[in-house]
Amino acid sequence: MTRVARSPHERTLDGEAQRHAIDCLLNCYLREYALPRGEATLDCQAQDLPMGLRQVEGRRIGIHLADGSRLALLADRTSVLGRCRFVSPPYFKGHGQGWRPLDAAELARLLLAPMNGPERHGELLEQIDNSLRITRTFLTHARAANHDPADTLLRSEQGQVWGHALHPTPKSRDGVSEADLLACSPEVGAQFPLHWFRVDPSLIRHLGDDPRDLLVQIAGADHLYPCHPWEVARVLADPLVERVRGLGLLEYLGPQGLALYPTSSVRTLYHPELSHFLKFSIHVRLTNCVRKNAWYELDSAVALTGLLAPLMAELAESQPDFALMPEPAASTLDLSAYGSVEEAREVTECFGILYRQNLDAASRARYRPQVAMALFTWTLDGVSACQGLLARCANSLGVAPAEAAVQWLRAYAERLLGGTLDCLFRHGVVLEPHLQNTLLGFDAQGLPCRVWIRDLEGTKLVPEQWPAERLAHLDERTRASLHYDADKAWKRVAYCALVNNLGEAVFHVANGDAALEKRLWREIASVLEAQRAPLGDPQALRELCAGAPLPSKENFMTRLLMKADREAGYTALPNPLTAACRGECR
Known about the structure:
Blueprint: H1 8-34, E1 40-41, H2 51-54, E2 59-64, E3 70-78, E4 84-86, E5 91-93, E6 100-101, H3 104-112, H4 121-141, H5 152-157, H6 178-184, E7 192-199, E8 204-208, H7 212-219, E9 224-227, H8 232-236, H9 239-246, E10 250-262, E11 268-270, E12 276-280, E13 285-286, E14 289-290, H10 295-307, H11 309-318, E15 322-324, E16 329-333, H12 341-350, E17 353-357, H13 361-367, E18 370-371, H14 372-375, H15 387-397, H16 401-427, E19 429-430, E20 438-442, E21 448-453, E22 460-461, H17 476-482, H18 486-510, H19 514-532, H20 539-545, E23 550-553, H21 555-560, E24 570-573, H22 576-581
Parallel strand pairs: 15-21
Antiparallel strand pairs: 1-2, 2-3, 3-4, 3-5, 5-6, 7-9, 7-10, 8-16, 10-11, 11-12, 12-17, 13-14, 16-17, 18-20, 19-22, 20-21, 23-24
């Protein structure tokens, strides 16, 4: 079979997809495995490095593998957390061999070889390849979507081609065809109608607020119930659904109604005219998890909105620039009268929808909100996405770029940490303020002045402040899904806020300037110190400010070992707060 020659443009896209896959794999490997074991250096001075690395400016990264072989590559920037941006392929040197470059697939097999669980390597390698191919597809079809330029939220939701920077499979979407990817993925500016069923009203179940008016607004008719396009084939093939369709209680109508926009989480849909986001079930593995709405998550999200209503009201007074986005409603179909418990539960999960309160039009116009992940990532041109915003902020403030960066980062950290730590230490509420869950709003000068945290699925409660009797009205499985012990609670909050979120913010705001990076971490240290007394000087925060390591979630090992996200382990990172302040703050 004759191979079709690829154009220069296609080769460029292949190279970009490869480069990003390698960036993710090696950053995960360095952070979770090589740096903690002393098997890597971010300033390699070996004399036998490949000529291509010795003759170019940058930091030479060296990695020693378990069998004595080595990896070397070049980075144009590194951070105190060991985060790198690589600008060369990884070069490999085995015993008695010369250096040779590796592609992403070769690198993945090499990194996995010494790790436990070789029977699991095949699945992870397939997902790494899947993520690489999908990234290549998105790069091919990435385009400026025809959105309202004033809708900064939608632009940021759909402007994240690269995804999670420290995950081995940031764009993996198992079992989804290319046509379906292009039809329903935010990375290509998609918008699409839902698939609808005419449903006997006796089969529809609502939790919390009644969403029927919203569904009528989308469908344009009564007694219709929607399904995500990626889920409809599974639904139509379900034996219980077939039986109920045969009884005339359920009729498939196909796609119709208002076209909605997928957000950065893929399965959560948005439209500026709707009062709520709609979070659908899709039995597709995105990064770590199959993104279905488990039956108990429908219960827990709505229950949390009710339980946290007093907290939300208090935050409006005590942390006026910080807010949670309520999820006051859920809906699904209940076919339990026509099948077994197991059959009915499957259908309940397939049809499950959570409704998250949207920002109103006035707030969107005033604050110009953006998803944090869209700011602390790379543009398609390889520039840190926040740099344009920072330049405009410096111009508006009339200060030097570095000074604007410090003011900007401090304004963001004060709001993010003020609300997140207040929730944890004063109320026992464990948020997940990672980059994709955090929205930023801005004042007239471009400084962060507002933070919203979304996705109550990831919100948990500390049992000491939320004992079982306080949750007695909930189903036992729902109750169990809500509790995190104090240690796990702290690790999750510290990772999400300080490593995943502010760690990436510092990396992109500093933009390779090591002195500025130190200043930014000093600002975060100062914000944390100021929080200690108002929060009662909690032990975990006191220890962190004194130099305790930062917990970093192990995305690579969690995926390799096929653990539930809830059971992820943590790597201890050297504390950048005290390193930045040593000799200056104490």
